[in-house]
């Protein structure tokens, strides 16, 4: 596909949030195509939504946690085996409040806390290679100011 040929290609824009509490990472177990997989709280950007707001919303919807974003970890491009392209914006966050009565998004079985070692050992259950790559970058200290990601009015 080529823009010059009058065709338009667009990747799926997603956000992910790395939330750490007492050395553990907040992860979700979600059912995708009948398989139980692990992911960060993550999801698609919605129309007219900032990336920051999307990260906060997806974390709340998938885990019941309200968080405070603290840093931008990075942007990641990935082509899935299906041929779909993803552009993920990952943020670091601190947990603030949890609402255990909040219903979780469809497909989310549960939210849980895992050590980085536990999550890495479960690589065969990661929803995509983006899961560990984002965590590895976070663990390596990759943090950028939130101002690196801006929404213009």
Automatic annotation (TrEMBL):
Its EC number is 3.6.1.-. It holds the Pfam family NUDIX. Keywords: Hydrolase, Magnesium. The keyword Oxidoreductase does not apply. One of its GO terms (molecular function) is ribonucleoside triphosphate phosphatase activity. The keyword S-adenosyl-L-methionine does not apply. It is an enzyme of class 3 (hydrolase). Its cofactor is Mg(2+). Residues 10-136 form the Nudix hydrolase domain. Belongs to the Nudix hydrolase family. NudJ subfamily. Monomer. PANTHER family: NUDIX HYDROLASE 23, PHOSPHATASE NUDJ. This is Phosphatase NudJ.
